Amino acid sequence: MSKVTVVAPANIAFVKYWGARDLDQAIPRAPSLSMTLRQCTTRTTVAFAADEDGEDEVRLRTEEGTFRVPGASFTERVRQHLDRLRQWMGQAGTFRVATENTFPSGAGLASSASGFAALTVAATRTMGLVLEPEQLSVLARLSGSGSAARSVMGGYVEWPDMEVGDYPAMHLAGADHWDLRDVIAVVDPAPKTVSSRDGHRRAGTSPFYETRLQHLDERLEQARVALRHRDFEQLGPLIEEEAIELHLIAMSSRPPIYYWKPATLAVLEAVRGVRTDGVAAYATMDAGPNVHVICPAAEEAAVANRLERLPEVEAIIRDGVGPGPSTTTEHLF
Ligand code: PMV
């Protein structure tokens, strides 16, 4: 039985994927651009027995270091993805999977991105194949978690909106290109009540969705240019505008989705406050109430300091741009 362990990161989108042409295959209606993180990661160990023909085993490692059987829908999503990978590789056999996150799962902090990226890289490797990042991106996306397509690459990643093809993400720049930080204010670590899948499904019902699509290419180009020139004055406002727009689409969908909590607004106000004090920092949120505050390395301490003092903030995660997935011999079983 071969065994591989992979640590794969979450990512935070500066230009967001919201709305799909095909939800099951996560084919996006719009391009996106993200920064791969380094602290928020999933570690997944996958063992593959080519000669066995049983049911795949899936386990979650808890904070206490014990293993538990995950909920039925989680297990089902993992098994479906393993089936897909088996089929793609043209191999028979049984998987054993154990996985753990360094951060809250299902709370809009991209645990499905890191989770399916780790699973895809580890499972294909246990079956004996080391794939190119573009191939891994396509396979990870087929899990239904679109943002997983970006988490198989490090640094800064674009996932273009293509008319045809396999829709792989594209590596734009390495982590060493620009040392941006992400101070994450966790205001609610509980799993969100409306999945991003539902959000994607409802996006087109917002009367503002088509308007969003019309200016997204321009915004993406501005983000690319800002990234190329390491121009935070241009990138920062764009990131925040983009996040607010995603949530406006969510709130104006039918039925509406409110991912924000009062605490989210308190953090947004604090971020405006630090800017008034001359600190360059801008906020972004994925499909959840927690706030990612993006800033250059030199501003990280000031941002963390301010957010730590907010009673609404339950925890701070100090993260930043990272190099992407890696293998490790620190197996989970
Ligand atoms: O990867 P999904 O299908 O969970 O969708 C992710 C959606 C956002 O996180 C809100 C935006 C993004 O581009 O990551």
Task: Summarize the structure in words.
The chain is an alpha+beta fold and 333 residues long. It is 36% helix and 26% strand. It has nine helices and 14 strands. The strands form three sheets. Strands 1, 4, 5, 6, 7, 8, 9 and 14 form an eight-stranded mixed beta sheet that branches. Strand 2 and strand 3 form a beta hairpin. Helix 2 packs across helix 3. The longest helix is centred in the middle third of the chain and has 20 residues. The protein is globular. The two termini are 13 Å apart. The site of (3R)-3-hydroxy-3-methyl-5-(phosphonooxy)pentanoic acid has 15 residues, from helix 2.
Short description:
Helix content is 36%, strand content 26%. The chain has 333 residues and is an alpha+beta fold.
**Averaged pLDDT:** 95
**Radius of gyration, in angstroms, nearest whole number:** 19 Å
Which structural class is indicated by helix and strand composition? alpha+beta
Q: Give the CA-CA distance, first to last residue.
A: 13 Å
For the sheet with most strands, the description reads:
8 strands, mixed
Following the backbone from N to C, one meets helices and strands in this order, namely EEEEEEHEHHHEEEHHHHEEHEE
Helix content: 25-40%
Number of helices: 9
Heterogens: (3R)-3-hydroxy-3-methyl-5-(phosphonooxy)pentanoic acid
Shape: globular
**How many beta-strand runs?**
14
Strand content: 25-35%
Low-confidence stretches: none
